[in-house]
Amino acid sequence: MKRITFALFLFLSVTSIFAQENKPELLFECKRDISLLKNENPFNFENHSFDFDILYYDITLNWYNVLKNGNVNYNGKVRVITKVDSLNSASQFKLNSFLTTDSVVLNNSKLSFSGTDGILTINLDRSYNKDEVIDLTIYFRRTRSDNKGFYYYGKSSQTLENLAYTMTQPNDSRYWFPCYDDPANKADSIRLRIIVPSGFTATGNGILESVQTIGDSVIFNWFERHPISTYLIATAASKYSKFIQNYTSKYPPYETFEIQNYQWSADSSRSVYVMRNVGVMMDCFETYYGKYPFDKYGHVVVSPFSYGGMEHQTISTIHRNWLTSDAQSGIAHELAHQWWGDLVTCKTWKDIWLNEGFATFSEDLYREFTQGKNAYFSSMNSKANYYYNYNPGYAIYNPPQIFNAAISYYKGALVLNMLRYVLGDSLFFQALMNYRNQYLYSNATTEDLKNVVNQTTGSDYSFFFDQWIYQPNHPYYSYNWRVTQLTNNFELKIFIKQTQSHYNVYKMPIEFLIKLASKDSLVKVWNTQREESFTFTFNEPVNNVVVDPQNYILKQLTRDNTLDVAETKLPDKFYLYQNYPNPFNSQTTISFSIPSDEFVSIKIYDIAGNEIKTLVNGNFKAGYHSIKFDGDKLSTGVYFYKLQTKNYQATKKLILIK
């Protein structure tokens, strides 16, 4: 009789959590109003004439019977605070949901609703105008047997204790709670209240506010105060052990926060070992990307898991086999996502490379940080080889398969490596910092990144994004070179020809490592034409030429000895090219073309028109030429370079930044 009485008391206590709540509490911090992308329809119906901005989710899930008895269905409720984000008034509120809705309550009154094809349509009590706030609560049940969005596994050889967790990228959140299941609509804050049996631990986003015990049930209450996309909301529950690492930020006020690691007890010592470098990874990413943007970080181990890891905001879900395989790259990848994916989130899945390409690039940035540049290049070359072998032949932007490793991950990382090469480290990392600061706690598109790059550099890099992001595949280069001995020196001619059929000309700087009799010389030129040659003069023999020695450019490269560098097609006009890089730090390259043998003068002037330096003053043969300018002794500022021949003159601006 006592057992029956206690069980009844427990049932009433736990289910009372699902009753209507009237007490006030801290609900959300409104960081920024995020409007939905108007040309996308996350609901897939034609006449969606109004939008809402989600301000706050308060999600309660009763997983007591799930974890105690293996019942894969559960009761839940979600309080949604939302704001009308349209000029049109709204009398209905629609959410994504493949769950059974029992009731919807607004202002102590029940609202009518309907559910069809994964859409929960709620009829509001009146029409609401733009910027009006609606606060309602939805009571729901999961009545499904599949593993989608929500996963349960009973204790087994690979699942060491009963386990329940959520995993929803890209659009499976609708299978475990009613929500606006679109990455562009970030909730300003969320709460997760997970009810589990005694002895179990439930993880969640943000900070653990409280743990409440009621009989044999425990309620874990997590609160994430920062804006969060729906697919990054997650929880996992099992009989976990926990160990904590502490990290002190490199940025004032030098706050210390916890890195919380949840795993089964049998894996504890292994987990401590595998997480040994998380602090160094934090150092790396804070160095290059700025301050860690949240209040805590951590990992929760699950198995089975269809993925390696998932960057849920403030706590990444990882496969148990990452512990046995010591997956340092994976750990770094998911941590980097906290900046690229969680802080700045792709606005649409067309832009998934902004998440995955950035995190994959960050793996190698961490290698460079800890092992040096050679390790960075070696790993990038491995990624390039994977891409060459498995390239499906479509563009990075709007891929038909958003999680394709060769495209969204590896090519995305390789494109960032090329952008770093084109801009130089100073401008590249400044552009990333500006991108972060402009879109933090918000969403961004590829065009947004391109605009930030252009603003940061003061130049138009649309061509770079056109050829590498919006076009598929990569360039095919054939090349040849020949040396002619002159009276007092040696003339080297290098011929480059692009042979790809899918895109006319990839405009890229190309490095040539020229192996001389006594030393090596590295030169960089801009290749801006389908067929182009470059001439260099040395005072000693040339033994060999290596094109793109560090494999910066994603390409196919072959030497074609039939290309006669002495008979290269000559330019048909005079032209002075924009110097590269620009802006520059210390050294830059100035290129020009002349259609006939000419006496050429190139001079540098300051912004007041005073002549600073003469770079060239002599005879040049018809063709394409490049000259290095060293501004090491000049101060930061704007300068001009002027080319003059008998019948032609041109002036361009260059910017020196130290």
Present the secondary structure layout:
Elements: H1 2-15, E1 52-62, H2 64-69, E2 75-84, E3 90-96, E4 100-106, E5 109-110, E6 113-116, E7 119-128, E8 133-141, E9 149-153, E10 163-167, E11 189-197, E12 201-202, E13 207-214, E14 217-224, E15 236-238, E16 241-248, E17 256-263, H3 268-274, H4 278-289, E18 297-302, E19 309-310, E20 316-319, H5 321-325, H6 328-337, E21 344-346, H7 353-371, H8 373-390, H9 405-423, H10 425-439, E22 442-444, H11 446-457, H12 462-468, E23 476-485, E24 490-498, E25 508-516, E26 520-527, E27 531-538, E28 542-547, E29 556-559, E30 575-576, E31 587-594, E32 598-606, E33 611-620, E34 623-630, E35 637-644, E36 649-656
Helix pairs in contact: 4-6, 4-7, 6-7, 7-8, 7-9, 8-9, 9-10, 10-11
Using only C-alpha atoms, the radius of gyration works out to 30 Å
CATH architecture of the largest domain: Sandwich
Shape designation: elongated
Give the end-to-end Cα distance, rounded to a whole number of Å.
82 Å
Structural class: alpha+beta
Helix content: 10-25%
User: Count of helical segments?
Assistant: 12
- CATH homologous superfamily assignment of the largest domain: tricorn interacting facor f3 domain
Strand order of the largest sheet: 5-4-8-2-1-11-14-13
Describe the overall structure.
This protein is of the alpha+beta class and 658 residues long. It folds into 4 domains: 28-239, Sandwich (Immunoglobulin-like), CATH 2.60.40.1730; 344-468, Neutral Protease Domain 2 (Neutral Protease, domain 2), CATH 1.10.390.10; 476-566, Aminopeptidase N, middle-beta domain (Immunoglobulin-like); 575-656, Macroglobulin (MG2) domain (Immunoglobulin-like, Sandwich), CATH 2.60.40. 22% of the residues lie in helices and 37% in strands. It is built from 12 helices and 36 strands. The strands form 9 sheets. The chain has an 8-stranded mixed beta sheet with strand order 5-4-8-2-1-11-14-13. A 5-stranded mixed beta sheet has the order 16-17-18-20-19. Strand 35 and strand 36 (649-656) form a beta hairpin. Helix 4 crosses helix 7 and helix 7 crosses helix 9. The protein is elongated and about 95 Å long. The termini are far apart.
